[in-house]
Amino acid sequence: MTQNLRLMVERLKAVSHPLRLRVLALLGSGELCVCQVAEVLQVPQSSVSEALRELRRAGFVNERKEGRWVFVSVVPQSEISPVLQGILAEAMALKEVHQDRDRVAKVKILGIPAVCCKAQKAAKAEAAHV
Amino acid sequence: MTQNLRLMVERLKAVSHPLRLRVLALLGSGELCVCQVAEVLQVPQSSVSEALRELRRAGFVNERKEGRWVFVSVVPQSEISPVLQGILAEAMALKEVHQDRDRVAKVKILGIPAVCCKAQKAAKAEAAHV
DNA sequence: TTAATGTTTCGATATTTTCCGATGTGACTA
DNA sequence: TAGTCACATCGGAAAATATCGAAACATTAA
Question: Which CATH number, 1.10.10.10, 3.30.540.10, 1.20.1440.20, 3.40.367.20, labels domain B5-129?
Answer without folding.
Answer: 1.10.10.10
